[in-house]
Amino acid sequence: MRSAPTILHLDMDAFYASAEQAAKPSLRGRPVIVGGIGPRGVVATASYEARRFGVHSAMPTAQARRLCPNGAYLVPRFSLYRAVSEQVMELLGRWSPLVEPLSLDEAFVDLEAGGLEPTVSAARRAGEQLRAQILAVTGLTGSVGLAGSKMLAKIASEQAKPDGLLLLEPGSERDLLAPMTVRTLPGVGPATGEHLRRAGISTVGELAEAGEDELVRLLGRAHGLALHRMALGRDDRPVVSERETKSVSVEDTFEVDLHDRVRIRYEVQRLADRCVGRLRASGHSGRTIVLKVRRYDFSTLTRSETLRGPTDELSVVREAAARLLESVDTTGGVRLLGVGVSGLADYTQGDLFAQGVQEAPGEVQRSEESAALPPLAPGPETDRGAGPPSAPVPVAERRWSPGVDVQHAVYGAGWVQGSGVGRVTVRFEGPGTQPGRVRTFRVDDPELEPSDPLPLVDPGRTGGAVADLGAPPVPGSRCTH
Question: What is d(CA 315, CA 357) in angstroms, rounded to the nearest whole number?
Fold first, then answer.
């Protein structure tokens, strides 16, 4: 434990939904839900206005619609979220060389490594200045926790939400933690929480008072000792700038259960293509191919195959996934499929072709069933709907999902409010405008085109805004701000 609260945890507030509200003036102050909008979709993020209705992340979208029928339900725009995340991470990097991203909207920062004076006042000023910089550059708010450990800094940022800062001074940790539920601590999920509740332990204070011996008896040595240390506020994990990637995977949930075995094989190959694309993009190869199948009754099966060496060859991953599928009974239907690669390495075993199924040229045949399906692309494809198609999509075939960006030849930039019955409704507005007007077009209107997201803040204003807020400390120097 540090003697000064110089570990900072930043968590952007309702990130996806807040970005959508910043981009769409007509949605500001309204409940916004971002996620899958189909009957089997899941909420990724809900705005604070939507949370008042009981909507939260990981909730089925169908349930969210019942709780909040008048909310705006939008598909995610990951290109926008990634762009904003890069801006935020760049700001964090100005404060310290030790930045540990946890996701697009969350990260730890070791302020001492950046030269900040290890005092309460300097840490508080740094946290407030960082929040102001993020607002100036992105137009969004983030909550900051400052403490002497990563665990406490994360708990502090949760307590500070939304749009706040909480600093835990050394010595105050036990008082803060004691009344909190045991579920507050990392590693305590529903099962462990219920197990502890049955033993009469519901709060972190009760967990600390139980002692090591009792927790070891209840949870086992490793888990019991770790939880007792956390209940006392002890956490000596360092901030690490690079987190090791352990696996790469992709999965799809289908709106209607898949019953046709040929279609299931086809979807597994599509997933293998996407998985290899991500694997190569990350600069890794892997030894273990994993297939995930969730059946109609929500039972989930996982199958894996370990190769002789790491690979990023598309044919090898495809064939391994296909072999794994043969061992799974899909009778009754499949609602989710996933393909992953683990056992990662940063090199590739060159001679792995023998691991795939080899056939002589004269023996390669395509079944009549497979021939009825469209051919797979020769290379990995991007996430479904997340990237541009390889060839222009005929306007009659375009799908206009709620929330996506469009450009009209006459009316300019806007976003899709909804579509159906051959029509698409567009609201023409942007981050720096007043709420715009709504117009309806035919779905095949040649003057309406998909477009890229607009920046939330005018790029010309952000540099000066950050300069006006003062410069972060130079790594290696001591600065009190």
Answer: 9
Distance separating alpha carbons of residues 146 and 130, to the nearest angstrom: 12
* CA gap 419, 400 in Å, rounded: 6
Q: Give the separation between CA 416 and CA 407, rounded to whole angstroms.
A: 10
DSSP state of 220: -
Region 173-187 average pLDDT: 89
Tokens 């044919």: give the residue.
315
Crossing angle of helices 120-138/78-95, nearest 10°?
150
Secondary structure in 3-state letters for 23-50: HCHHHCCCCEEEECCCCCCEEEEECHHH
For the chain, the straight-line distance linking the first and the last C-alpha, in angstroms and rounded, comes to 24
Q: Angle 134-138-143 (CA atoms, 0-180°, nearest 5)?
A: 40
What Rg do the C-alpha atoms of the chain give, in angstroms? 25
Tokens 């700038």 sit at which residue? 241
Residues contacting 292, CB < 8 A, separation 6+ = 249, 251, 300, 301, 302, 336, 337, 338, 339, 340
The encoded tokens of residue 152 equal 């406490």
106 given a catalytic annotation: yes
Nearest alpha carbon to residue 19 among 117, 108, 102, 86: 86
Tens digits of residue pLDDT in 334-388: 999 999 999 988 765 554 444 444 433 333 333 333 333 444 443 333 333 333 3
Contact predicate 57/44, CB 8 Å? yes
- Name the token pair of 186: 């990392």
User: Mean pLDDT over residues 107-113, rounded?
Assistant: 96
Predicted pLDDT of residue 206: 94
Phi, psi of 98 (to 5 degrees): -105, 95
- Listed residue (86, 88, 64, 82) closest to 74, CA to CA: 64
- Gap between the Cα atoms of 10 and 138, Å rounded: 14
Whole-angstrom distance, CA of residue 23 vs CA of residue 26 = 9
Question: Measured between alpha carbons, how far is 252 from 377 in angstroms, rounded to an integer?
Answer: 18
Q: How do strand 7-12 and strand 165-167 relate by DSSP bridges?
A: unpaired
- Interatomic CA distance for residues 26 and 248, integer angstroms: 38
| pTM as predicted | 0.77
- pLDDT above 90: residue 302: yes
List strands edge to edge, sheet with 165-167.
99-103, 106-110, 7-12, 142-147, 165-167
* Per-residue pLDDT, 298: 86
238: tokens are 């360092």
| Residue 380: partners with Cβ closer than 8 Å, 6 or more residues away | 273, 274, 275, 276, 277, 278, 280, 314
Grouping H, G, I as helix, E, B as strand and the rest as coil, residue 153 is helix
Task: Please name the residue that has the structure tokens 């434990």.
Answer: 1
pLDDT digits (tens, 9 = 90+) for 409-450: 999 999 999 999 999 999 999 999 999 999 999 999 999 999
Peptide bond into 60 cis (omega under 30): no
Catalytic-labelled residue, pool 49, 100, 106, 381 = 106
